[in-house]
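Worked Example 4.2. Consider the chain below.
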Amino acid sequence: IIICVGILGTSMLTARDFDERTAKLLALSPAPRAWLVAGKLAGGVFMTSTIVVPLLALGAALGWIAPPPGHWPALVALVGALVVMAVGAGLLLGIWVRNARLVAMVGLNLAAYLFFLGGGFTTVPFLPDWIQAASRAVPTSYAIDGLRQTLFYPELVGVGRDLAVLAGCALVAVAGASVALGRAWRRA
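Applying the procedure from the previous section yields the following structure tokens:
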């Protein structure tokens, strides 16, 4: 859900700016570019959080999500890093494609790729070596591994590494999106 909402929602909103030519208005705005980019990122994080937080709260209230004692901070940190990474990737996708219909198709494929190759339906170590190697290059594999560890196992083995990689990927996605958005607005 985080991957789909973060990537698709943010990329659709970003592509819509180019479709409706509001990107040109943003480029001419007297507001500092850093504020505009921060607003785009904050909007994507807020939009994704308005769906993810109630689902997590409902799952916890119904007992569907019941991590071992003391694992909630790690779970929240992983989910937060994944939200930021998905929003940054969504911004990059929306800037790159710039067409709402095309963004929907490409975004769905990207979300499916990230989920499946990340180990969403199977445990990656049971797959062939070449898929395991490809999975290590996908940030969602660290998110899914960390989420499994925080939800199902008594100790948080490897969660620090998973969180560090995911936070690093989130930082790279946000930085890349910030630079790309600034350049795209200049050309708009």
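The CA atoms of residues 74 and 151 lie 10 Å apart. The longest helix spans residues 33-61. Compare this with Example 4.1 before moving on.
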